[in-house]
Design a protein that fits this description.
By secondary structure, this protein is α+β, with helices and mostly antiparallel strands. It contains 23 helices and 37 strands. α3 runs antiparallel to α4. It is globular, with a radius of gyration of 30 Å. Keywords: Exonuclease, Exosome, Hydrolase, Magnesium, Nuclease, Nucleus, RNA-binding, rRNA processing. It is found in: Nucleus.
């Protein structure tokens, strides 16, 4: 049966057009129940013995995905109308739902109700899309009940009061999430239930889950219609809220509309906004703007009840979230300081799962078994979260994960629930049988069929080698270099893993030969987004048979590659570039140390060492040319641990050493990424996945300029080239001085992000740090899904593969880029958390005296960076609770002086400090730095 389906959409040019599509309806779509007497049960996914089948609506999926992922919830039908609506509203939840529906161990079945002739519904006149979808869900539920008969109960699960009422009127069994979970007889599952913030759930359903109501504490958020109008007329200002790392009661919102940072003082003015939320801000009257010279360091134990009396920081702290604070009493004199404001609405939430521990609260009378507790995140920027749990005794004294549900204006704290997830949304679950079924059998070896496919070149005769961190197993890039008859070099870049450094680059195993688009393996890699590198563990994006064997470019085995081959002059000028799928055989898998030792040993003249030296010579020229174009040479304090192989405890800690061998590999990976970016964009101008690095704003660079001025440096930040030249001139008698300045400069930068080329104008494509007009990630497909996408784009540009249909779906491409950015940030946070944990373990038994450098000055202390260990933390000059009145801050010269003495501490000054792990609160150890 053929139906016409019409809808309106907005084009990129802003025009609204009506789209009419043919919609085919069928009567042979299976229901998925093995007990069905009329459908083909070979495609059944539900339990054979299922007496109840649940159908969930869209809001249940969006809000209760943690619950749905519990193994206790099964025999669920997901309607195609729900799946599509979830995809449009939240791609991350959509990916988790798809993983459930494709997991052979779970009883989830997707029913195409929009294509079944008995369940498809047309939109009625005056009916909203939401009401139409709710009606479609009820029609499908009623059809299921009629289709399966009286022996199977079909239950519609919805927290929408109106949808539930209509369902019951239409003869459909319907329950709220909470009542359904209670009926399962598993009280612990209630910990996973997300409380509704819309008032749809009846009070009897959540009576023992909802905290008691109090007086209004926060202002109501403005409706989006009012926010939109306010933004248009300049009454409100939009930006991302960034909470101070050292002071959770102060935040900043960068506003393009006023060209400055707006400071938000106190929880009241933050108005329930979380770090990373996109918010609408209203400026306070200018007489409420405050001076910032008395900002001092806050203690972990500071009570957030008194946040309204905080004194703000100075302007230099705004961009980097490194401010220091102390509660004060009394009135604050009005001054013409930085713009201050208050949050009036949340445009986009940044809630996710948080790691921390519980503070027990008294169990309310009459609720036996249900305990209220306050969750304290180990990230001090996150407010305490109120949860209800029946597992309090089991969860105390443990690190747990909590997700935020709501934050009512009547509650001092947000409400959340305990989830069985790991911090930073990192998926550590084993790969499913469906994913593993996509892998070729082991042992895998190159066949004649492999060579015949994709116009693959046989380059096994070339002297190919890889250079990686020691012990690297997921090698996804390699190089070769040989001199041509005309005296030029032919340089090939092929697959390897490169350890995260400043710009995290590698290259190029032919992963897409094994990860085919649309397969369960591809879906899993898309959801995970990236491999995660912890101090002593790697959480893979792809199963180990691929990462460490089939795709890894190990030495002395034949492997498939995707090659970028340049002809270059001895002066590193690229004469020509070509791309090809290839077969290679690496002759050596070197570590950076081994490669550097070969290049430095003048006695070694073998062909491999000669290749290394030739490549290094070219790389030095390429690097110099890049810097001359304005590329920045920044620095970051990367920490390296030596781990005990038996106890897995850290034995030693220090900063990671960068050698010429590292920089050599980096240069060729950068060049490969730039070349591929140019190629794919030329062929696919509207759907290429690229990577951009926005220029830092003037406000973001202000802390660097203030620090530089305090030590007599004049930095020019008018362009990346000007900043790079200024950093090169920032030298002194201290050999570490320049690196410290570059570390401070790194902290002023924006984050590089993935994007679809169809979403931005070409002027926004550039990469500030690399001074590159175009850039992408092609060089690490074993560990980054972005590179997998780019491999597919390049193969299609070369005509050796078809472009997957997903590249024709602009919104989905945007969603994929957003998910990749989200996963990349989470991986970075997990990596930093791993370093933090191992740092605490190391110093717990090793109190240490060492040298540090002051990187930020405040009135009762300063922030110190410890070069030997790559560690940073606050040092107090006055006892806890003291307002620091004895110390006077000179903001202009970045100095703090004790009143009446000549004791002075200045920016970048060397100080001796004592480092020791202390535990001021149970289960919350911290590394304490004290001045010697």
């Amino acid at each position: 049966m053929l139906q016409s389906k019409s809808f309106v959409k907005k084009t990129r040019q802003g025009r609204v057009v009506k789209v009419v599509r043919e919609h085919y309806l069928r009567d042979d779509i299976y229901c998925g129940a093995p007990s069905c007497k009329t459908c083909d049960t070979s495609a059944a996914r539900l339990s054979t013995s299922a007496s109840t089948i649940s159908i969930v609506d869209t809001n249940v999926v969006l809000n209760q995905i943690d619950l749905l992922e519990s193994p206790a919830i099964d025999d669920v039908v997901v309607l195609s109308v729900v799946l599509e609506e979830v995809r449009n509203k939240n791609l991350a939840v959509y990916n988790r739902l798809k993983a459930l529906c494709t997991n052979s161990l779970r009883k989830y079945f997707v029913f195409s109700n929009e294509h079944h002739k008995d369940t498809y519904v047309k939109e009625m006149v005056g009916e909203s899309p939401n009401d139409r979808n709710d009606r479609a869900i009820r029609v499908a539920a009623r059809w299921y009940q009629s289709h399966l008969g009286v022996n199977t109960q079909v239950l519609l699960i919805t927290n929408d009061r109106e949808n539930k009422r209509r369902a019951i009127e239409e003869g459909i069994s319907a329950e709220t999430v909470e009542s359904y979970v209670r009926s399962l007889g598993k009280p612990d599952l209630l910990d996973l239930v997300v409380l509704s913030s819309s008032g749809d759930v009846s009070m009897e359903d959540v009576e023992d889950l909802r905290p008691s109501k109090k007086k209004v504490i926060y202002s109501e958020h403005k409706p989006m219609s009012e926010i939109t109008s306010g933004l248009l007329h300049g009454v409100y200002h939009q930006g991302k809220l960034r909470v101070n790392r050292y002071n959770p009661f102060e935040a900043y919102v960068g506003s393009e509309s006023i060209g400055d940072e707006i400071v938000i003082y106190g929880r009241s003015n933050m108005n329930r906004a979380f770090d990373g939320d996109i918010v609408a801000v209203e400026l306070l009257p200018q007489d409420q703007w405050r001076d910032g010279k008395s900002m001092i360091i806050a203690d972990d134990e500071d009570d957030e009840e008194e946040d309204v009396h905080l004194v703000p920081s100075s302007a230099d702290d705004a961009p980097r979230n490194e401010n220091l604070v102390q509660p004060t009493t009394g009135s604050v004199p009005p001054v013409s300081g930085r713009p201050a404001g208050r949050v009036v609405g949340i445009i986009k939430r940044n809630w996710h799962s948080y790691c921390g521990s519980l503070e027990p609260m008294p169990m309310p009378a009459g609720n036996a078994g249900v305990a209220h507790a306050l969750f304290v995140s180990k990230d001090r920027r996150i407010p305490k979260i109120r949860i209800q749990t029946r597992q309090l005794g089991n969860l105390l004294d443990k690190r747990i994960i909590v997700a935020v549900d709501t934050w009512d204006c009547l509650s001092r704290y947000p409400s959340g629930h305990y989830v069985l997830l790991i911090e930073n949304a990192i998926n550590t679950r084993p790969f499913s049988s469906q994913v593993l079924a996509c892998l070729p059998p082991l042992p895998w070896s190159l066949s004649s069929e492999d060579l015949a496919k994709a116009n693959r070149e046989d380059l096994r005769h070339l002297r190919v080698f890889s250079v990686d961190p020691p012990g690297c197993k997921d090698i996804d890039d390699a190089l070769h270099c040989m001199r041509l008859a005309n005296g030029n070099f032919e340089v090939g870049v092929r697959p390897k893993h490169h350890c995260e450094s400043l710009l995290a680059l590698s290259d190029i195993a032919d992963v897409t030969n094994f990860v085919l688009a649309g397969t369960p393996l591809d879906e899993e890699a898309s959801q995970r987004g990236t491999s995660v590198y912890l101090v002593e563990r790697r959480i893979d994006m792809l199963p180990k048979p691929l990462t460490e064997d089939i795709c890894s470019l190990r030495s002395d085995v034949e492997r498939l590659a995707f090659s970028v081959i340049w002809e270059m002059t001895p002066d590193a000028e690229i004469i020509s570039t070509r791309y090809t799928k290839s077969a290679i055989k690496s002759c050596a898998a070197l570590s950076y140390v081994e490669a550097q030792a070969r290049m430095d040993d003048s006695r070694m003249m073998d062909p491999l060492t000669t290749d290394l030296r030739n490549l290094n010579s070219l790389a030095k020229i390429m690097r110099l040319r890049r810097i001359e174009r304005g590329a920045l040479t920044l620095a970051s304090p990367e920490v390296k641990f030596q781990i005990d192989t038996e106890t897995h405890d850290p034995l030693d800690i220090g900063m990671y050493q960068i050698r010429e061998a590292n920089q050599m590999i980096e240069e060729f990976m950068l060049a490969a990424n730039v070349s591929v970016a140019e190629k794919i964009l030329r062929h696919f101008p509207l759907c290429s996945l690229l990577r951009r690095h926005p220029s830092p704003t003037k406000e973001m660079l202000e802390p660097l300029l203030q620090t530089a001025a305090a030590v007599g440096l004049d930095l020019n930040v008018s362009s990346s080239k000007a900043l790079a030249d200024s950093l090169d001139r920032a030298v002194g008698d201290d050999p570490y001085f320049n690196k410290l300045i570059r570390i401070l400069a790194t902290r002023c930068m924006t984050q590089a992000v993935y994007f679809s080329s169809g979403d931005l104008s070409p002027s926004e494509f550039s990469h500030y740090g690399l001074a590159a007009r175009l850039y992408t990630h092609f060089t690490s497909p074993i560990r980054r899904y972005a590179d997998v996408i780019v491999h597919r784009l390049l193969a299609a540009a070369l005509g050796i593969a078809k472009l997957p249909p997903i590249f024709l779906d602009g919104p989905q491409l945007t969603g994929i880029a957003d998910n990749l950015n989200y996963r990349h940030r989470n991986a970075q946070m997990a990596s930093r958390a791993s370093v933090e944990l191992h740092t605490l373990i190391y110093f717990k038994k090793r109190p240490t005296d060492t040298e540090g450098r002051i990187v930020k000055i405040k009135s009762n202390g300063f922030i110190v960076f410890v070069p030997k260990f790559g560690i940073e933390g606050p040092v107090y000059l006055v006892p806890k609770g003291d307002k620091g009145a004895d110390w006077v801050v000179d903001e202009a010269h970045q100095r703090v002086t004790k009143a009446g003495t000549n004791i002075t501490y200045g920016i970048l000054q060397k100080v001796r400090i004592h480092m020791e792990v202390v535990e001021p609160q149970p289960n919350r150890p911290k590394l304490e730095l004290t001045l010697i």
